[in-house]
Amino acid sequence: MSRITIYDTTLRDGSQTEGISFTVNDKIKITEKLDKLGVHYIEGGWPGSNPKDKDYFKNYKGKKLKNATIAAFGSTRRAKTKPEEDVNLKELVSSGASTVTIFGKSWDMHVTDVIKTSLEENVRMISDSVAFLKKKKREVFYDAEHFFDGYKRNPQYALSTVLAAQEAGASCIIFCDTNGGTLPTEVKEIILEIKDRFTVELGIHTHNDLGLAVANSLAAVEAGCTHIQGTFNGLGERCGNADLCTLMGILQTKLNKKSIGEKNIPKLMEASYFISEISNFKLPDNAPFVGHSAFAHKGGVHIDAMIKNPLAYEHIEPTLVGNHRRFVTSELAGKMPIILKAKKMNVDLDKKSPEAKKILKNLQIKEHGGYQFEAADASFELFLKRQLKKYKPFFKLEGFRTASEKRFDGRVFAEASIRVSVNGESKFSASEGDGPVDALDKALRGALSKFYPTLEQMHLRDYKVRVLNSKEGAAAKVRVLIESQDNTDSWTTVGVHENIIEASWEALTDSIEYKLLKDQKKK
After folding, report:
1. Does the chain have fewer CB atoms within 10 Å around its N or its C terminus?
2. Residues 362-371, buried b or exposed e (16+ Cβ, 10 A)?
3. Helix/strand/coil for 450
4. Domain locations along the chain
5. Is 285 helix (H, G, I), strand (E, B) or coil?
């Protein structure tokens, strides 16, 4: 089994995602998670560009990680500047990183129109910068920015830039599809055309502007590249970078190529949600391998086939990447999700048994009343446990109150107070929030945190409200869906009532009860 080097750039390229801003502490947490996962290189940032990245490298100066090597990122020297006088290169050296990745221009248009220097000077900038860093005893990776666009326009010049980096001592040449506009066939053909000119490791760095970042990375691997750069969850500027979760899943399960190691591949889903949590960027449910819906089955025909043979509608065993199979409850699925969920609780239900029929009838009554368990798997599990009398509540509500207020200065805020009891002990809590549900959530978790500290690990990710019978106007029933997440998973709960606060309370308490139930199972 051949080995592929995984180079993660979540902390640098991923931080360029619109809406994401990692703190130094965030970056350290992600570094620790990636190191445990077995990622080979972690690009920590650009120490010459901002104080935050300087602080990050200062934290790791002189330290070694268990599995990963931290790399610093920067550019070649500026035009008409000596490398030893270039501020960016000096910052890369002073960062203390043993590996340095620098990028330079491969596309002649960028040389003449963007950095406005001569084609000859650009080649010298690349060569001088790599040689300077090598003299400083650094492992040097060279990112050939816009390589494919440059090669298609002026192949001789684009090739001369990367050969200059190789001759100056770069350990790896990485071909970059910086604009994300290259097709897999082009990637493969170009690399095959030039790879015999290289004696060092070759790598690939792709962007997802055509939705082909993963496909382009795989095309490069097929052409001989053994170094892949990407981000977790496909984070990155514009449409993002190649998703390392998908790539590592494919390398291991489809191409028989080692990356982070077979024993670490089952940790992919957990790592994906962990980084989603810290970046405050929702992982799509339909994300390959690690998404919540990646192995979810809804249609009755599909479910029936899956029971007979899981290969019928799954390309791999979900546990290989740390995920799990789900049968979605809906009007399309009949009794099978009920029977299968019950089986997980060590309860054998027969399709024709009175108990199964009763549960299905109660489920249909709930759905007729507006509940939608198809989109709220966590609430369905709690519903089933209650029906089977396999559930004991973690707390009891004694009462709550919410209020919203708008001040003279235009500020709007909400307050909530609540009293709950746990094993006979009463606890009161009050909190402010952006709205009544937010305030209620904070107050409830404040009251329960003494008894259940792990609730601090979860938070609400999404809140949806739908009016069910709009003809009734303000008196109509509403359905509330709440999505919650911790550092390993996400789940959705549902509540229905004429009063939006009561519907929200039902979904909110289900969310917390499910988190506690999940933690209980781990013990």
Report:
1. C
2. ebeebbeebb
3. coil
4. 5-279
5. coil
